[in-house]
Amino acid sequence: MLSHPHHEEFVPKFCKKYASVGIQINDGLAQFKKEVEGGVFPGKDYSPYLMSEEEEAKFDDVISEHAEKTKSKLDASDSKLGMADESEQLSLYGNK
Description:
Oligomer: single chain
Shape: flat
Radius of gyration: 29 Å
Distance between the termini: 65 Å
Structural class: mainly alpha
Number of strands: 0
Number of helices: 3
């Protein structure tokens, strides 16, 4: 990823190479991807932030309440847009 072959082909005289870390970075990222896609990471050892059942219930209530408010606002907007479209159609035909 960070060590493209064209970087190795030409190195200006004023550049000094201190380390070759591109291969290690690529290997680490590939291992990370493999573990995430395989469902191995993050496991319980790397997930210290757990919700109690009470916290989870409160969280679900907040999410549900937010979803209801959002749906209500969306329905109101749809209604207003529908009335505006109806009014515009009537105006197009000379009916007001």
